[in-house]
Amino acid sequence: MRGTENLLCKILALLMLAQALLLSLAVPASPSSVEILELKISIGTLTSTGTFYQRLDRTFNPGENVSIKVTLRAKSQEKHGGVIALKVALVNPLGVTIHENCRNLTLEEVGTQVFEVVFTYGLPEAAIRGYYTANVQASTDKSSKQAEENFFYNGLVDRENIVELNWTVILKGSGELKELRIAIPRSEELQQPAGPLASPKPSRIEADPLGNRYAIYENIKVSSKAFIVNFRLTALQRVRVVGEAIPISALDSLPGDVKVFLGQSQYIESNAPEIVSIARRLRQGAGTVNELAARIADYVSSRIRYNAELGSIADTWQLGALWTLHSGQGTCLQFARLYVAIARAAGLPARVVSAFDLKPPSGESSDLHAYAEVFFPGYGWVPVEPQLPGRLVGVVPPVPGYVPVIKGLGQGVGNNTPTFITMLYTGTVKADFSYTYRIYPATGIKGRVSLSIDHPRQLLFNDILHVDVSTAPRDSTATLMITAPNGTARTFTLRGAGKVSLVLDDVGNWTIEAFASRDGYLPSYYSGNVAVKPRPLKVEVLVSGLEYLFKPVFIIKTTPPVTNATITLRIRSMLLEEGAVLYTNSSGIAAFEPLILPFPATLEVVAQARGYERTLQSLRYDNTWVLAAYLLVAAVILAVFLARRFRRRAWEL
Q1: How many CA atoms lie within 13 A of 388 on its CB side?
Q2: How far apart are CA 176 and CA 169, in angstroms?
Q3: Domains of the chain, earliest start first
């Protein structure tokens, strides 16, 4: 399945491109109808019932699966919906992508839709310790959005490991050995080696034309008492990445000593027509040697099935590359032979490697492992694990704990054919082989990053939140995520001590999360809350206008000044009831002028604004003096009128 991940991504990308082309032919050109509103990653595990459980500390131990939950919110503006291509990549501490998945999400209706997709990964025993990064990219035909999150894997091995290896060869039977050759690990593959120490001491140490080294024993008699040879080796093994890109044209001018690894040899049928056809297809369009090596690894790892039962067959050694291609199965040896055959047919020098396989943290075995090795012009030989996807080509060793002992296994060079044990004997002699080992990080975890977060626990709306962050060691990296009550998150990255300030523009519980990390240390996690309460809002009602004409103007003023606050006003008097909804201006002021208000009235003012307390203000508008003045004037006018009328009647009489 690993080898098909890249192919799946490419197929989905082509399908999306085809769909976009068909849509472009069916409808007029216009901006993309799909808008990606939010993309979020959560790190956790799946429970036994399949429920995602978020791991806030983001720390995982060997044997635990890592689940990546992708939450995507998108909006479609057209009936035919749209497609979002989702790509998830898991990157190890070396910067190498170890997993990659693609999926298409279809919006089937107009409006906003939320997708939740969970990807689960099991990290192998030999996955190196450190910080892994989950990268997620969501793309439409016109736009894309990215997100990433990291987690710590407390693995059994690291980028530098101590290997302790003890292997034993036991000769049984009856006979005499003129010469016994036992291969020992190559010194250039290990750093600071102590050994190998052999007991008994060999007659001499020799190297063959390929650089393989052997402990040579001579004139050995084997009888009822077995002849036992013990070896012991302790060394440092570093895991590194070959990042240099080698142009494919470099294969046209190879050194003479590597051209022997371009031809066909026993069990590596690189001249077979079907293998040549595959090699030509894989090389076509490859721009670099790295790309070619990766393509071959993808081909072999995705098409051949590992069959452990083949290891118990007596003639497994005789199952070559062509048999593996036709049967679609094999052990590690058959994977390696098929890879080497295709590589040679493509013009890439390659050979089979035999190695001790140290599975962390310790163990014992009587089997050597086989993988391949290819030649990068200008750099040298690079190991390839044909059972793994091509994106891992360039990691040296391909898996921590691979200790090569024979390079060019079974490849005759001159009079020499490299094998692990070679015996020249008379009589009946049998060799048994086994080894025990330990592999562990050269440097232990120094402790956990010390993370200190200081912030207030309660504030008011629109206050400024200050979060002080400090870490030890001081050069640790702290990722701070502050999430508003509505789910909107803001992320900040600090190196060492620092401060983050943020305006609290929403009411409710704000969540503060921090994740501090540093190479060589376990990460630390912090989670806290800030309760943000509505800010008090005061309302003041002023009266102006032509009150003497029963045309008052009510001015509502908010303190502090709030823009666009909703003011609900209700006026009740003995003759009428009137209401209005107003909105404050940038000065926090709103005004209302009733049609006419000749009598005293009661005013109810309700002020509401996002982030502020709801305020109710009642007051009595008393215009009795205006009414009294009008009545007094009317009475005077009436009195004058009646007085004049009385005088006129008196004069007439």
Answers
A1: 19
A2: 16
A3: 2-153 (2.60.40.2550), 238-441 (3.10.620.30), 450-533 (2.60.40.1930), 538-622 (2.60.40.10)
How far is it, in rounded angstroms, from Cα 410 to Cα 396?
23
pLDDT-derived band of residue 27, with 50, 70 and 90 as boundaries? Answer: very low
Distances (CA, A) of 462 to 505, 507, 534, 560, 612: 5, 9, 9, 11, 10
Q: How far apart are CA 389 and CA 385, in angstroms?
A: 8
- Strands (E) across 19-143 are located at 34-46, 52-54, 59-60, 65-76, 82-91, 97-107, 111-122, 130-139
Nearest 5 degrees, angle CA 8-CA 13-CA 18? 125
What residue spans of 164-309 are helical by DSSP H?
273-283, 289-303
Beta-ladder partners of 162:
236, 440
Which pair of structure tokens corresponds to residue 218?
Answer: 């001579």
Q: What is the pLDDT of residue 596?
A: 63
Query: For residue 647, what are the contacts with CB-CB under 8 A and spacing of at least 6?
Result: none
Q: What is the pLDDT of residues 323-335, one digit of tens each?
A: 999 999 999 999 9
Instruction: Please answer whether residues 374 and 345 qualify as being in contact, where contact means their C-beta atoms are separated by less than 8 angstroms.
Output: no
Provide the Cα torsion 306, 356, 407, 317; round to 10°.
Answer: -40
**Residue given tokens 């939320």 in the structure block:** 114
Indicate the SS3 state at residue 595.
coil
Calculate the CA 355 to chain-centre distance: 32
Rounded-to-integer distance, Cα 150 and Cα 93, Å? 10
| Percentages (nearest 5) of helix, strand, coil residues in the chain | 20, 50, 30
Helix (H) or strand (E) holding 7: helix 5-26
Residue 414 has pLDDT above 80, yes or no: no
- Among candidate residues 395, 95, 130, the one with its CA nearest the CA of residue 241: 395
Distance, CA of 383 to CA of 404 (rounded, Å): 10
- Minimal CA–CA distance to 376: which of 218, 243, 236? 243
Give CA–CA dist 239/157, Å, rounded: 10
The residue type of 649 is R
State the pLDDT confidence band at 24, using cuts at 50, 70 and 90. Answer: very low
Per the DSSP assignment, residues forming a β-bridge with 540 are 557
User: Using CA atoms, how far apart are residues 524 and 58, in angstroms rounded to an integer?
Assistant: 9
